[in-house]
Amino acid sequence: MPLNYPLAEQTLDNGLRVVVSSDRAVPIVAVNLWYDVGSRHEPPGLTGFAHLFEHLMFQGSRNVQSGQHFSLLETVGASLNASTFFDRTNYFESLPSGGLDLALWLEADRMGYLLDALNQENLDNQRDVVKEEKRQSYDNRPYGDSYERLVRLLFPENHPYAHMTIGSMADLDAASLEDVHAFFRTYYGPNNAVLTIVGDVSVEDAFDAAKRYFGHLPAIPTPPPAPDGTIGPLTEVLRDDVTDDVPSDLITMMFRLPPDGTPELDAAGLALDVLAAGQSGRLNRRLVRDEQIAQSVSGGALPLIGGVSFGTLTGIASDGIDLQKVEDALLEEVEKLAESGITADELATVQAQAERDWLEQLSTCAGRADEISHHALLFGDPNRINTRIDQVRAVTAEQVQAAAREWIRASGRAQVTYRRTEDDGAEA
Predict the structure, then answer these.
(1) CA-CA-CA-CA torsion for 66, 70, 74, 76, nearest 10 degrees?
(2) What are the pLDDT tens digits along the chain (428 aa)?
(3) Residue closest to 72 by CA, chosen among 55, 84, 60
């Protein structure tokens, strides 16, 4: 089903790629800026730097005082935030269209002049904020360190995806102001970013505004390429068993998958969806509804572009049920899918679910801007937003089974289990 969202693209003289999608339906505009830097770009000893900058970028720049980025935009009715991932960092705001100039001016000021305000006090302050975030989101939350444990099992030491975006607190403690300035100069420049503007603005006015606010910023030297993370399927079982004060016993399995942008990754993602997506997934039907050995099951693919992706399956045991029963049932269904494949109805169901989720994501200016930046930065092709559903629909049942046979196997998985400290009398 071809989509036809309008797209116009220009590259400024300094290398900034600007993509505009005009949509005059409502007086809203979304500004979305993706930088080609994430945790996979961080060398050993500098982990957590991309995420640290997600915080530092709101602490002021040459013409903006600390905290003003949020306050100025919220005053004109904007919602805004930022996020860091393995492959990128993004900054975004959605606001009434009359605020477009303000949003672009603020983004340009911190792209060009953040270091004017990045002093030791700001660094120390935000380093403490990151430490507190790690305590709250990873260390002191039930199951909060599960992905951290899993990626350490799934990938060799110093693999670009072997550490989470939060990074090492020891690395952050050791970071000097000079280290942080050098990281910014390496990655945060117009020629290492994509700016997307979607909403109530003409194409011409949007490009004029982008040139006005960003065009004078100098390009940075070409950043070093991210290390190649190409690696094949896991061929052994690696486990991490944790006993802790958790609400329920839980198991998460993680599998290496093909890199994003390949039909094989689409097929592997659909295989995991057949197992774990929604009420119709095989695992939900068997473990939750029929056998009632699990409170819930979930899973899916996490696409990455650096030579490998990964996918997960998670089951939370029902009260009084030995977690081993959940593990055995998960593995049985994994092997059944690889050996017997999926039905035409199952394939149609998960493809329809993917289509619904995609259309929902594109239905807002903010969601569309984020996906345009995503595909422009990581694939060089913003028009993938209009063809993505066709790629998913082109996957066959045979391709799904082939991907499952190669990548999603009981004999090739990393696994973490959490069991409650107190034995509540689980069945043997």
Answers:
(1) 70
(2) 579 999 999 999 999 999 999 999 999 999 999 999 999 999 989 999 999 999 999 999 999 999 899 999 999 999 999 999 999 999 999 999 999 999 999 999 999 999 999 999 999 999 999 999 999 989 889 999 999 999 999 999 999 999 999 999 999 999 999 999 999 999 999 999 999 999 999 999 999 999 999 999 999 999 999 999 999 999 999 999 999 999 999 999 999 999 999 999 999 999 999 999 988 899 999 999 999 999 999 999 999 999 999 999 999 999 999 999 999 999 999 999 999 999 999 999 999 999 999 999 999 999 999 999 999 999 999 999 999 999 999 999 999 999 999 999 999 999 999 999 975 444 43
(3) 60
- Tell me which residue has tokens 């982990």: 47
- Answering whether pTM is above 0.70, one says yes
CA distance 236 to 218: 49
User: What φ, ψ does residue 250 adopt, rounded to 5°?
Assistant: -140, 145
Q: Is the dihedral of CA 320, 326, 329, 333 positive or negative?
A: positive
How far is C-alpha 109 from the geometric centre of its chain's CA atoms?
26
Residue type present at position 249? D
Task: Look up residue 343 and give its DSSP letter.
Answer: -
Task: Using the CB atoms, write b or e for 382-417: b if 16+ within 10 Å.
Answer: bbbbbebbeebeebebebbbbbbbbbbbbebbbbbb
User: In angstroms, rounded to a whole number, what is the distance separating the alpha carbons of residues 17 and 382?
Assistant: 11
Going by the DSSP 8-state scheme, the letter that residue 83 receives in this structure is E
Three-class DSSP category at 309: strand
Q: Contact at 8 Å (CB) between 81 and 92?
A: yes
DSSP state, residue 407: H
Indicate the DSSP class of residue 116: G
Of how many residues is the chain composed?
428
Helix axes 344-362, 365-379, angle to 10 degrees: 110
17-22 β-sheet, strand order: 8-11, 17-22, 193-199, 28-35, 89-96, 79-84
Residues forming beta bridges with residue 90, ordered by sequence position: 34, 83
Element (H, E) at 254: strand 250-257
Q: How far is CA 367 from CA 150, 357, 363, in A?
A: 29, 11, 7
Q: What is d(CA 8, CA 20) in angstroms, rounded to the nearest whole number? A: 5
Residue with tokens 């295989």: 271
- The H-or-E segment that residue 418 falls in is strand 413-420
